[in-house]
Amino acid sequence: MFAALRQPLAHAVAPASPKLEYLLTETRGRVALVTLHRPKALNALCNGLFVELNQVLKEFDNNKDIGSIVITGSERAFAAGADIKEMKDRQFIENYVEDFLGHWTQITKIRKPIIAAVNGFA
């Protein structure tokens, strides 16, 4: 169904930040495609990835030319889950007080439809 999104691009969208470390973005018509791009970590959801994800989702949400957003994974996995390496040396109270997972809830504020095109491990 989403194979058409992986065809040569009609045009790419450059987010406001000059460089994204953990994501790839592109558009086809009114659909924005966001690809999680941490293949060596099976796209584990780290803090930096969520900062970037929230940034690009907000930009696409505010773009009148975009009607929906598709999130997919790169290479072998959609996402391996939370990147536990970031949490292994932290105590529960640190995570709670610092709202360590606060970035995870920002995605719920996006008004446009978000579709997960799950591929590989999830």
Automatic annotation (TrEMBL):
GO terms for cellular component: mitochondrion. GO terms for molecular function: catalytic activity. It comes from the Eukaryota. InterPro entries: ClpP/crotonase-like_dom_sf, Enoyl-CoA_hydra/iso. GO terms for biological process: fatty acid beta-oxidation. It holds the Pfam family ECH_1. Transmembrane segments: none annotated. This is Enoyl-CoA hydratase, mitochondrial. It comes from Linnemannia gamsii.
